[in-house]
Amino acid sequence: MAATETASGKSLCYHLPVLHALQARRRAGSSEPAYELKLVNTGQHYDERMAGSFLRDLGFPAPDADLEVGSASHGRQTAQVLGRFEAWLVANPQDLVIVVGDVNSTLAATLASVKLKVPVAHVEAGLRSGDWEMPEEINRVLTDRLSDLLLTPSPDADQNLMREGIDPDISMARGVFTGLCARHAAGIVGGVGGVLVALGRKTPL
User: Fold this and answer.
1) Can you give the chain as a three-state secondary structure string?
2) pTM value?
3) pLDDT at 70
C-alpha cells in the first residue's frame, strides 16, 4: 500500500504527529498490510518562518516531493497545486492521500485525488466557523464532502458533519488527532508544564 501526505506551511506541524504514529506502527511490526508513506510539500507557505523553521525545529523528514507553488491569488494557487499534484500522482500512483486542515493545498490535493479515483483521508475534518467570508471555510466544507475518511478532532466536529447530512460511518478515530498532537508537544517540551494552544488567525485572538 502506498500512502501520501500533502503538507504546506503551518499544516506541517499537524502532519508530524500523524507521520510519527504511522512510522511507530510500522516499526512495531503491525499485522496490518505493509505500506510506503510519501510526503509531498506543496510549497503554499514557503517563507523561512512559515515552513523552514518548522522543518528544522520539529525534526521533520525531508519531503519526497516539493511542488513549489509559492504565492498567488486563491484561484491561481489552488489551480497550481491541483495541476502539479495531479501530475505527481499520475507519475507516482498511490492507494490513499492524507490531507490536513483547510488551506488551499488541502482542497486542491483532494480534488486532484478524487478525480484520479484515489481515496482521501481528511485530518481535522468537521471544523466549522460558519463564516463563509473565510476562504478556509470553503476549503474545509468542500474537502469534507469529497473525502472518503473523515478524521475529526472533537465531538463538535462530529455534530457539524451530521448536521450537514454526512454519513457518520465515514467519520472515524474521533479525537485521535488531538491526542497525537498533545503527546507530540509534550515530547518536545519535556517535563515543562504548560498549555497547548493553536492560534492561526485573528478570529480567535
Assistant:
1) CEEEEEECHHHHHHHHHHHHHHHHHHHCCCCCCCCEEEEEECCCCCCHHHHHHHHHHCCCCCCCEECCCCCCCHHHHHHHHHHHHHHHHHHCCCCEEEEECCCHHHHHHHHHHHHCCCCEEEECCCCCCCCCCCHHHHHHHHHHHHCCEEECCCHHHHHHHHHCCCCHHHEECCCHHHHHHHHHHHHHHCCCCCCCCCCCCCCCC
2) 0.79
3) 75
